[in-house]
Amino acid sequence: MELPFSALCWEVAHTLRSGM
Q1: Cα dist. 20→3, 8, 11, 16 in Å?
Q2: What is the DSSP string of 1-20?
Q3: 8-17: b or e for each residue (b if 16 or more CB lie within 10 Å)?
């Protein structure tokens, strides 16, 4: 399952937002 870079960035941003 390979996700596009945009999807990865989105996931990272969401995780960071959740963490904050």
Answers
A1: 24, 18, 14, 6
A2: ----HHHHHHHHHHHHHHH-
A3: eeeeeeeeee
pTM as predicted: 0.31
Q: Which two tokens stand for residue 19?
A: 């963490």
Tokens of 16: 């960071």
Look-up of token digits 């996700």:
3
pLDDT in tens, 1-20: 677 999 999 999 999 999 87
Task: Report the alpha-carbon distance of residue 19 to residue 3 in Å, rounded.
Answer: 22
